[in-house]
Amino acid sequence: MNWNIRPLDRSAVPAIQQSIDQKTKPPGALGQMEALALNWL
Question: Which pTM value belongs to this model?
Answer without folding.
Answer: 0.51
